[in-house]
C-alpha cells in the first residue's frame, strides 16, 4: 500500500543538508541530459457557476519527472483568493512511484516539501553565485517561502541580517519575529545594501527595482511562474540571468519573456564548470521556476527517511 505522508512528517524527515546536495546534483543531471522532465502543464479551474477561463480563480499545475530511481508527479493548485479565506494560496501534493512497476509508493502533502526544495535551489545558487562573505539577505515576501529561505540560506552563508518586506505589514512583522529578522517598511529599504535578495511573492507586477541593487548582489527570483507575471523590473533583468532550466525560463517566466532578457546559463552549467560565473561587479539574477526533478529528489529523500524510521 502507498504510504501517506503528512506535512509534519515531511518537515521532520527531510534533512536540509541532504536536500541541498540532492538539488545540486539534480541540476547538474538536468544540464547533462540525464533526466526526464517535460514542461509543466497548466490548467485553469474554478466553480462551474462562475467559471471564466479568461479570468480563472485558480490554476492547476501538473509536473511529472524522473531522475534516477525517483519517479514523481506533483499537482499544485494556486488560488490567490484563498488568502482572504485564511487558507493557503498554494496547495501541493506529490505522488512518488516505482520506476520499474509504476506503482505508487507514497502520497505526500507537499506544501512544505515545495517550500524546502525551492529554498534549497536558492541555497545552491547562493553558494555558487554570491560572495562568500554575503551576510545581509533581503526577503521580498513574508509567507512560507520567506521562512524556508531564511532557514536554508543559513546552511550556506553566515547570515548576519535578514530583512523582510511584503505588501502586508502584519505578515511582515510576524515573519520577521519567526525567523529572527528585521521588518522593513518598503522593498527598497530591504534591498539597499543586501548581498542576497530573494523575491518570494505572489506579485504579478514588478516589486524589485534594479537601481536598488548592490553591484555584486545575487537576486533569487522565485515567484512569478507565469509568462505574464513579473517580480523584477527591466533594469534588474538587464543583468546576467542564470536559470534553473533555460527552456522553462524562456517559455514560462514573465520576468524573462517580458523584459527580453537573455539567459546566460543554466545553474547546472555553472556547477559542472561548463560556463564561468558572470564577472564580478554586476548583479546576477537566478531565475528559479521550481523544477519537477527537485520535487522528485525531495520526495525520494522523504520516502527513504520514512523507510529507515520504520525499520
Summarize this structure as a short list of keywords or feature phrases.
single chain, 311 residues, alpha/beta, ornithine cyclodeaminase, domain 1, Rossmann fold, six-stranded mixed beta sheet, 23% strand
Descriptive report:
The two termini are 17 Å apart. The chain is globular. It has helices at residues 7-13, 16-31, 111-129, 144-153, 169-178, 187-191, 234-237, 246-252, 254-259, 267-272, 292-310; strands at 3-5, 41-45, 58-67, 70-78, 90-97, 104-109, 136-140, 161-165, 182-183, 196-199, 218-221, 241-243, 263-266, 284-287. 35% of the residues lie in helices and 23% in strands. The strands form two sheets. An eight-stranded parallel β-sheet has the order 9-8-7-10-11-14-12-13, sandwiched between helices. It has a six-stranded mixed β-sheet with strand order 1-6-5-4-3-2. The chain is α/β, with parallel strands linked by helices and 311 residues long. It has two domains: 3-113 and 293-310, ornithine cyclodeaminase, domain 1 (2-Layer Sandwich); 118-290, 3-Layer(aba) Sandwich (Rossmann fold), CATH 3.40.50.
Amino acid at each position: 500500500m502507498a504510504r501517506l505522508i503528512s506535512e509534519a512528517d515531511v518537515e521532520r524527515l527531510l534533512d536540509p543538508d541532504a536536500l541541498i546536495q540532492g538539488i545540486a546534483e539534480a541540476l547538474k543531471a538536468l544540464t547533462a541530459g540525464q533526466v526526464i522532465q517535460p514542461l509543466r502543464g497548466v490548467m485553469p479551474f474554478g466553480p462551474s457557476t462562475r467559471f471564466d477561463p479568461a479570468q480563472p480563480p485558480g490554476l492547476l499545475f501538473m509536473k511529472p519527472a524522473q531522475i534516477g530511481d525517483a519517479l514523481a508527479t506533483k499537482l499544485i493548485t494556486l488560488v490567490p483568493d484563498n488568502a482572504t479565506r485564511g487558507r493557503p494560496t498554494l496547495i501541493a501534493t506529490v505522488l512518488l512511484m516505482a520506476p520499474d512497476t509504476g506503482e505508487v509508493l507514497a502520497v505526500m502533502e507537499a506544501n512544505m516539501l515545495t517550500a524546502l526544495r525551492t529554498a534549497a535551489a536558492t541555497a545552491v545558487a547562493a553558494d555558487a553565485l554570491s560572495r562568500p562573505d554575503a551576510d545581509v539577505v533581503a526577503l521580498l515576501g513574508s509567507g512560507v517561502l520567506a521562512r524556508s529561505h531564511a532557514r536554508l540560506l543559513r546552511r550556506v552563508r553566515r547570515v548576519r541580517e535578514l530583512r523582510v518586506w511584503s505588501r502586508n505589514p502584519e505578515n511582515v512583522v510576524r515573519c520577521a519575529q519567526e525567523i529572527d529578522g528585521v521588518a522593513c517598511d518598503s522593498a527598497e529599504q530591504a534591498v539597499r545594501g543586501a548581498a542576497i535578495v530573494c523575491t518570494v511573492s505572489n506579485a504579478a507586477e514588478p516589486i524589485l527595482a534594479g537601481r536598488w541593487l548592490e553591484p555584486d548582489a545575487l537576486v533569487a527570483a522565485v515567484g512569478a511562474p507565469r509568462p505574464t507575471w513579473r517580480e523584477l523590473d527591466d533594469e534588474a533583468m538587464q543583468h546576467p540571468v542564470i536559470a534553473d532550466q533555460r527552456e522553462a525560463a524562456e517559455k514560462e517566466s514573465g520576468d524573462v519573456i517580458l523584459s527580453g532578457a537573455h539567459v546566460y546559463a543554466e545553474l547546472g552549467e555553472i556547477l559542472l564548470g561548463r560556463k564561468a560565473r558572470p564577472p564580478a561587479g554586476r548583479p546576477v539574477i537566478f531565475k528559479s521556476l521550481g523544477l519537477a526533478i527537485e520535487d522528485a529528489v525531495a520526495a525520494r529523500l522523504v520516502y527513504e527517511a520514512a523507510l529507515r524510521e520504520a525499520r
